[in-house]
## 1
Amino acid sequence: MYQVGVLTVSDRGARGEREDKSGKIMIDLLKEAGFDIAVYTIVPDDEDLISKTLINWVGKGLDLILTTGGTGLSPRDLTPEATRRVIEREVPGIEEALRQDGLKKTPYAMLSRGIAGIRKQTLIINLPGGPKAVKEGLKVIIPALKHALEKIKGDESECG
């Protein structure tokens, strides 16, 4: 079973001023898909703290880290920058699939700056902060996650 970290990035969530609906939805949908949630936390929109958390979780051997929040255009939306500092290889197809699917529902999906990439043997994916966007985004990526994680771990079988 793959070990997953769920990281919610939200100033108000970190201060306890807002319930983390997106993180809870993410956890529920991942569990339904057969993933084990190893760690979950909420951090403020702080680039250094986000990067340090991602590096720490990769060091714990997590297979997958999903973030929610901080992917928009606001000055404090720094999740993509923090993630880019951490990853060694980008996986642009995930980013493209999320935005393409989102555009079917709202033109605002083009404003999401979320990225996806690999550090060591951990896949890191940024999702938007809204509960609806998280639910829709997970429906897009969950079918490919296990295959992606197998490949990251060194599976050399043909894609099919």
## 2
Amino acid sequence: MNSAPWKAIFNKYEIGKHNFNKEPFIITAQQIRDATRQHFKKTNEIEARILCKQDSRENRPDVFIENNLFILPVKNKIYIIVKGEGYVDIPLIKNTVAIHKSKLDFRLETSKIGNSEMQHLDFAYASSIIRTFMNDDSLVLTIRGRKYTPQFSFNVGKQLIEVDGVQTEVDAGYEGKNKVVLIEAKNSKTDNVIIRQLFYPFRQWSQHTKKDIFTLFFEKQLDNYLLWQFQFTDKNDYNSIQLAKTCKFQILE
């Protein structure tokens, strides 16, 4: 959680005195390094890209948790500390497991080597789980890896946030005749995730296509493949995220 480095950062810049109800606090990667390098030696205690990676509520440093804060990138090497709810719950899927018969007429062997998010997602796609969940046989893999956002703005509460050129990454994106499906994948149980991981790609690809954008969260748990579909009811509101539907699949090869 890197609570000690962030305590040093807050002390150096007197962030605790900032009025977060009025506006976010802007901080640069250089400022983070300047505040930590004299007292800390480990890379994960100095580097902004690591200190600012707070992907779940529990990953936040103590000073963030105590003050109901979260952090967002807004430009290359520039971040803002924001007051409010930055995360969305990933609820348990209590539905009966849906037995899915793979659409392949042969058994995949190479996909069983290892335990990465990408291979589980690729196996789910190859078996047509993604197409089945989205009810769209036209979906094909077209997006993968890191890209940079165009300029866009949105609100967190009453505060206006402007983003430009922030690096994003989706584990996989699929395009069909009428829709684009973006997926954030994990290979272990996740209780909550920072909304940014779903919202930034959603806003990014909304500016590149007029097709409907769908955002999914994916997990593999034991022999089951789990999918959550989230939607943003207002593309300009970070906290307008809602759970649309879920399903738990088991694949029969």
## 3
Amino acid sequence: MSSTLTVIFADLTGSTPLYEALGNQRATETVVRLTRWIGEVMESHGGRVVKVLGDGVLGVFRSASDGTASAAELQRGHQIHLQRWPEVGRMEMHVGLATGDVLEVDGDAYGDAVNLAARLCERAGPGEIWTNDGTAAAAGLVPQVRFRKLGVFELRGKSEPQAIFQAEWRDAESPEMLTMQAPLHSAIAPLDSFFGTLQLSWQGSSQCYSSADMPVQVGRSSAAQLCIADPRVSRMHLRIDWHNSAFVLTDVSSFGTWVHYDGSDAAVAVRRDSCRLYGSGKIALGTPFETGGVLLEFRVAGNSMRLG
């Protein structure tokens, strides 16, 4: 018999450079130590570790609040690990949370929520926690966590686009998070009071977005606000949010994004990471600028970032 559970999938990426840097034995000991720590954090919040899958850990919680609190502690704790870690062989953590019907058989867990948590973990960037709307609705007030709606995404293996939220766990950022665009009872941060405008241009056509329109998704999918039908562009390639009175670009693609600011000498490579947009410039999707790939032009007005 199935029951409603919150499934967490926490995955460590970057193990290949770790093995190259430390050798098989030391790298294996490091990964085992980290996955054991992940399991201990889950259990300390009332969760049950279902299994360890290589560099990842799958767990289940009876409470969405406990699952979210566990995910936040994992990301906070891992940031402390990274501060002590040499640049070579750093392993980033990605977390996916999904609440739904789960069938537990002989200690294992099955069901759509299990698959969804894995897909969300795949799409989350380094240090991010992605959740489904069921988790955001059921979690209630979680200390030092705010849910922010990212938009509607197409996920591998899902026939319908999914409403996705990000559980923001960084204490310094939480007062400036965007209001969640849904009537949920979870912790909701106030709307940033400073407004801006972003203009995106592609193939001679321009669209303007205000900070209130965020998030904006760019990709090959018809569900994206800016749809670019080019095979070099991922179905959901990037999203743009409004944080701390600035537009923030986050790459969620398979092959990366490059940003060149007018007046700068070099482009910024963004791969499963974020950067702020300010002034004006160009964005290359899927391939670097020098390859002549898909280019967007951007122009920002009214935010706090200025060219130095």
